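Entry:
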Amino acid sequence: MATPCLGQIFISDREADSLDWTRADSMIVRQLRSKGIRFSHNNSVTLLTSGQEKFDDLFRAIDQARSSIHLEYFNFRNDSINEELIRHLAAKVREGVEVRAVFDGFGNASNNQPMKRRHLKAIREKGIEIYEFKPLEFPWLHDIFNRDHRKIVVIDGKVAYTGGMNVADYYIKGTKVVGAWHDMHCRIEGDEVNTLQRIFLRMWYLASGRQVSGAKYYRGISNADYMSGLKPDTCQSAGHKMVGIINREPQVSNEIIRYFYINAINNAKDSIKIINPYFTLSRKLKQALKNAAGRGVKVEIMLSVKSDIPLTPDCGFYNAHQLMKAGCRIWMYKPGFHHTKIILVDGQFCTIGSANLNARSLRWDREENAVIIDRETTRELDQLFEHEKQDSFLLTEESWDAWRTPWQKFRGWIAHLLAPLL
């Protein structure tokens, strides 16, 4: 029988002194606990590595809901997958299940198929409670800050989904601009479902003005054993994974996600692997990655050649070139757009969530990441990273010059000056 790793045991304060706190996973737990983050030790985490996998699993779980379904997304794009979601939710309302949904006003307005008043009216007529957080209002400038960029679904208070995907069919179909759209989500079962539920209910109050509380919305002693047909967590550590939720709430926990990333990088002794779509980086994050490579840590970063927005990727490419010169290995992913947001450290812990490595995510928006202290889940993500290398090219001075024109390089330099605004 394998010896339990840190993610498989409960650590009391009395036992803490006997642990090796020089390990990266132990260090990040201690650092996050000092900021008020609580970890639980009875979680399963199932990785959903494509849009098809995410929505298939989510719809199966929704169809088996008995009490409540709560959804919080940056946007629900008005397309075929949203129509399918509403169909499943409306069926549950008819069975007496409470369905609540929150979406962000800026997120809705900024996607190319927004929900309009008539769409929301039709959804509400089906018995689904849906509210918009911070609708855009004149003069609009203040409305681009402090958005709700989180992606959370909680079903019956027992099963939760989180990650980088909104509700949009391009996660399955791709887009004309970038082709295939790659992203990551996960399903969590265990006590961290309660944390995600608390985040949702706070946002529900902010958006709707309605208080919702009660034991029925939280995970009790029993798990959601009545659900079947969901993708299983096949790790030996399933049901025993150590997970903590880092939640960026403006004026409450402004620095927590930035704090996590900087400390995770600074703690690394062996390896760091990152996939992130908007790699604009703060000065401290960039320096932390350079320092890690300088002390012998194998730093590997994967960015997409293609992107869905202008200018921001130019800044990311500029940073990639600078980090390459500092000793980091940069992989440029070619087919489609990699919107995945993960970091793996020393093969010991990882994170999956909504936060990008840009100013918007780290300084302004409401974001949420699951920090997973588990070697087996980290190994699953490592296998994904290694597989994606097959469709990537390694950035070198030669490939940099062949790929980026002088104008594109200059544009990247200009973009990096604007990083605090991107």
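The CA atoms of residues 194 and 218 lie 6 Å apart.
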